[in-house]
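Duplicate of #3305? Posting structure anyway:
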């Protein structure tokens, strides 16, 4: 796939002189914030403030709020997150996802199965908006990586996702006229067993008018060991936003919404795991590259902010994540943090802070 165009061309809102909001920068925490101690929650959100982020992305998991049935709610863990974020002037991007046992299709034993009835999910979404809109939460991401079987069991289904998205978007906007809806962050993959490429999935959703139900498209364009700003002959996940022959931007243009923003709701790079680490040199990139050095993670973080600011359609960049999940090197999933598992800072923490500061007012 040959890259085409340039993210700095005159179709970019900023380059064209049209008004555009400053890049929204945030940190993604998954489901971790709701289970943290008060001390750890304070430290995690203080890190967001310290790097200059204005957003936090956190799961508001349906399975946790209504574990036992449709008539009961357990809001307190997320109440605490919203209050702590609000006290620091942080905006919350709440991810609505993950089905409790009572709402799953028959035979499904996973919270990653979509609900048997999208209306039940919509009712949960409406209740969340009624509760949190008065507390300043108006932005909602509907599911996480629905183009992967790992998050949409047993296999991705654009039609079923669009039905869920439509029901939730309507419910959120009735409950809160200020609500903004983000299409669930799409994983950057090739179509194959258990996965649908982000462009194929978006096209299937758009064919059902799902792109007209949202204010932005969520996307997870992990590029490590390459920089977000890298220019290649095959097209990195970031280049597939708008620089390749087949891109998110191209899909949106084909379906009549060429200016619909893209929110990068996860981006980052792991610094540990099995296999080889890359420091960005070609000689350290091969089939066994599963993570990067801490110095190269810092370079990736700084470059991502600059590249996001200069990429057409991209309105938000949310780094995953604040702290390593573990020091177990059997999986690189444990090492995406700006801090190590023991709480000590990696160079990426300072790099991200400096890049955000360089954006200016």
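Output from current build:
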């Amino acid at each position: 796939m040959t890259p085409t165009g340039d993210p700095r061309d005159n179709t970019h809102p900023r380059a064209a002189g049209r008004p555009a909001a400053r890049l929204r920068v945030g940190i993604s925490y998954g489901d971790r914030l709701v289970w943290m101690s008060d001390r750890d929650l304070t430290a995690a959100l203080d890190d967001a403030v310290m790097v200059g982020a204005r957003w936090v992305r956190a799961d508001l998991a349906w399975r946790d709020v209504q574990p036992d049935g449709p008539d009961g709610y357990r809001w307190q863990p997320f109440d605490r997150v919203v209050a702590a974020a609000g006290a620091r002037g942080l905006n919350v991007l709440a991810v609505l996802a993950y089905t409790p046992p009572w709402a799953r299709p028959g035979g499904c034993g996973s919270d990653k199965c979509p609900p048997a009835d999208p209306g039940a999910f919509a009712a949960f979404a409406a209740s969340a908006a009624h509760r949190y809109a008065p507390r300043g939460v108006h932005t909602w991401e509907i599911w996480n990586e629905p183009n992967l079987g790992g998050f949409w069991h047993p296999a991705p289904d654009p039609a079923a996702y669009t039905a869920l998205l439509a029901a939730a978007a309507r419910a959120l906007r009735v409950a809160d006229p200020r609500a903004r809806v983000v299409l669930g962050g799409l994983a950057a993959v090739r179509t194959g067993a258990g996965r649908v490429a982000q462009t194929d999935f978006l096209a299937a959703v758009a064919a059902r008018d799902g792109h007209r139900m949202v204010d932005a498209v969520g996307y997870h364009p992990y590029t490590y060991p390459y920089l977000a700003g890298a220019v290649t002959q095959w097209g990195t996940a970031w280049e597939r936003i708008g620089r390749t022959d087949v891109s998110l931007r191209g899909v949106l243009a084909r379906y009549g919404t060429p200016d619909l923003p893209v929110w990068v709701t996860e981006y980052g790079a792991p610094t540990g795991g099995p296999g080889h680490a890359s420091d960005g040199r070609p000689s350290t990139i091969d089939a066994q590259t599963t993570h990067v050095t801490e110095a190269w993670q810092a370079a990736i973080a700084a470059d991502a902010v600059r590249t996001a600011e200069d990429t057409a359609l991209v309105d938000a960049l949310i780094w995953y994540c604040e702290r390593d999940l573990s020091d177990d090197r059997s999986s690189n999933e444990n090492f995406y943090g700006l801090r190590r598992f023991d709480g000590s800072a990696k160079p990426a923490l300072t790099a991200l802070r400096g890049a955000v500061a360089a954006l200016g007012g």
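Confirmed duplicate; merging threads. The chain has one domain: 24-358. Residues 51 and 350 are 8 Å apart (CA to CA).
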